[in-house]
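Researcher: We plan to redesign the surface later, but first we want a full-length starting point. Tokens attached.
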């Protein structure tokens, strides 16, 4: 889905974007024995999709090929948006890492209750029953967890 959204941002046609991503995966599959990925798989896939989008745009004259400077300008624009997207992706991964780290730093009982509430989507009553504690204890622990997370993650607010 992320690759399709990324591709769509470059070619602005949903069907073509999905086709490009499918072609990239097909190409990778057919050349799987020849490919040696030295970077993470995500950046590799995004770079492949980016290159395939640029190829598509060039082949279909979406980027004007008659004037080299115009082509360079369009490609630079695409590269800039690619770098911005990658930066935003890395930033969101950093936020996720910080959130998970903050959750891990919660006291054990608080962390367990928070996990049951937010990740397993149990109600306070279900948590109370499962852990054999009162609903008020669950509420208090969730409140403490949220206060702690707000404090630890205040740079994002």
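Model: Full-length starting sequence:
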């Amino acid at each position: 889905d992320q690759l399709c959204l990324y591709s769509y941002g470059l070619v602005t046609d949903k069907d073509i974007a999905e086709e490009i991503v499918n072609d990239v995966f097909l190409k990778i599959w057919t050349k799987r024995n020849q490919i040696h990925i030295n970077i993470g798989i995500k950046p590799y896939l995004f770079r492949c999709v980016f290159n395939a989008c640029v190829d598509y745009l060039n082949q279909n004259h979406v980027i004007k090929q008659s004037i080299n400077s115009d082509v360079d300008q369009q490609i630079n624009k695409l590269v800039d948006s690619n770098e911005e997207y990658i930066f935003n992706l890395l930033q969101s991964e950093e936020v996720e890492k910080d959130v998970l780290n903050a959750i891990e730093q919660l006291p054990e009982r608080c962390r367990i209750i928070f996990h049951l509430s937010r990740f397993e989507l149990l109600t306070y009553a279900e948590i109370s029953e499962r852990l054999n504690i009162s609903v008020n204890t669950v509420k208090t622990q969730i409140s403490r967890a949220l206060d702690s997370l707000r404090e630890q993650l205040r740079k994002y607010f």
